[in-house]
Amino acid sequence: MKKFLTVALACCIAVSGCVAFAACGGGTDYDHTIIFYSSQGKNLTPTTAKAIENFEAKYPGWKVDHQPVGGYGEVLSKVRSDLQAGLQPDLAYCYADHVAQYIESADTVVDLNEYLTNAESYTYEADGEKKTIDRIGFTEEDVEQFIPQFLEECYARNFTGATQYGFEEASLLMLPFVRSTEVLYYYQEALDDLDETVPETWDDLWRICEKAHNKWDTCTPLGYDSEANWFITMSEQLGFGYTSADANNHYLFNNDDAAAWLTELHNYYEEGYITTQQIYNGSYTSALFVKGAENGGLVFCIGSSGGANNQAGQVYETQVARIPTTDGNGACISQGPSLVMLRGGHKVKNTKEKEIMTFQFIKELLDVEFQVKFSRVSGYNPMRRDVNDNEDFQLFLDGKDEDGNSLNGADLVASKAVNVANELNDCFFTSPAFVGSSVARDQMTSVVQYVLLGQKPAAQALADAYKNCGGK
Predict the structure, then answer these.
(1) Residue 131: in which H helix or E strand, if any?
(2) Position 195 in a domain
(3) Which structural domain range is residue 293 located in?
(4) Whose CB among 29, 186, 297, 395 lies 3.0–4.6 Å from 291's, allowing a Cys bridge?
(5) Per-residue pLDDT tens for 71-108?
(6) d(Cα 354, Cα 91) in Å, to the nearest integer?
(7) Is there a single domain that holds both residue 27 and residue 142?
(8) DSSP codes, 259-283
């Protein structure tokens, strides 16, 4: 027995945290442990650990097991697999098209309207004592501070087929966590050498790309980090169509206008003006951008505002602007994780209490103070308007740390990116969510790559993608 206890103690010291201790001693107490899947990297998990620490201090007897399981695709795959086995998490990062697949698992996705502004109190027992939560949900004033464009995409009316699974159009299938958009990273020094200003339109940008390529022959002027985002954004700016919520006509992208734009893009690629993530060995083009135009890098990089920390120049200071517009249309994509609550995992016996406590953790993640801290570290924009009233957030927008000292390097680039994205809320758009919408997105990545490289004519690439999505 003494030997067994020694081994068990060594195991639990090696793996920190109460949940890990339970695992060493015979399994996690799923009835009192919130399982949370995310795609957070090592730079973000320490910040989230603080939110978990605050939650566990407020609600004795409850724990959060945060499991970063990889990228968004890996989260989707793991949740779908776990749903089949009845082992789904209580909370997970998601995109809308993920949730469009989860709702097919009967009575699993929680309609968060039940908790959003629930003013009731709740009493639970921990260690033989009664603990009371004064208010289950947010106040009405809190919800009014949620950025409307972010909240709107979370309702079932934006999910094709949701009503057939028992949801109403006003059902709330997820909540926004943080958001990013695409922005234009650039070097002012390069523009000065070219006697140019920041491009406001795509025509401006292509004209500058030509001058840059002529001046620095090893320079590829523009890197775009997401082929799919490029196609989807231009479908909105140019109006040629991408997808539709109409179950009888989901896929709109197979058209002449889309083919014309892709063909134009191929010509610019042939001139040496463009690279993209897939063409650049599957790596973000920010790795080229930071080198600078004179050193075989880029002049411009279009990438996520949430990836600003990777865009700090090695030679010159990185500047940030909105992406170019088309005929005054400045539509830009809204992306970033939302939170979906799932019920029934691990055959818990206290389903309702688990949902209530999971919602308390959501409240912790959407708290103003936490949203500020997460934005500082990640470069993502908070989902609440009242964050702008926070003194620390204002310091961040002013390019200063919490002590008022000037930011530099990656932190300064993140500040600039959040500033730009913060002004674009009215320009954001989202695409319809349905089973197959994630397939369409993957196909657009391939379409742009095929056409740029000359592996397929634009019309053929679009027709093949349409067929791969199940179109007739």
Answers:
(1) strand 129-133
(2) yes
(3) 182-335+407-468
(4) 297
(5) 999 999 999 999 999 999 999 999 999 999 999 988 99
(6) 11
(7) yes
(8) HHHHHHHHHHHHTT-EEETTTTTTS
What span, in angstroms and rounded, lies between the C-alpha atoms of 456 and 448?
A: 10
Q: Is residue 390 part of a domain?
A: no
pLDDT digits (tens, 9 = 90+) for 48-57: 999 999 999 9
Query: Where do we find the tokens 């892709």?
Result: 262
What are 188's two structure tokens?
Answer: 């002012």
Shared domain check, 363 and 245:
no
352 with 302, same domain: the answer is no
List of E strands, 357-398: 381-382
> Is 393 inside a domain boundary?
no
> Which residues, listed in sequence order, are joined to residue 236 by a DSSP beta bridge?
none
Residue 58: partners with Cβ closer than 8 Å, 6 or more residues away: 360, 364
Locate 156 and state its tokens. Answer: 């079932």
C-alpha dihedral sign at 351, 87, 50, 366: negative
Q: Specify whether the CB–CB gap between 99 and 172 falls below 8 A.
A: no
Total domains present in the chain = 2
> In whole angstroms, what is the distance from residue 376 CA to residue 398 CA?
12
Distance CA 371, CA 127 (A): 31
d(CA 83, CA 90): 11
Phi, psi angle pair for 19, to nearest 5°: -65, -45
- Specify the CATH number for the domain of residue 302: 3.40.190.10
Per-residue pLDDT, 472: 61
- Which amino acid is residue 30, in one-letter code? Y
User: Looking up tokens 């008022």, which residue turns up?
Assistant: 404
Contact 153, 334 (CB under 8 A): yes
Tens of pLDDT along 188-245? 999 999 999 999 999 999 999 999 999 999 999 999 999 999 999 999 999 999 999 8
Does residue 58 belong to any structural domain of this protein?
yes
Question: Do 188 and 203 sit in the same domain of this protein?
Answer: yes
Residue 146 dihedral angles phi and psi, to the nearest 5°: -70, 135
What are the distances in angstroms from CA 26 to CA 8, 16, 21, 35, 371?
10, 16, 9, 17, 36
Cβ partners under 8 Å of residue 16, min gap 6? none
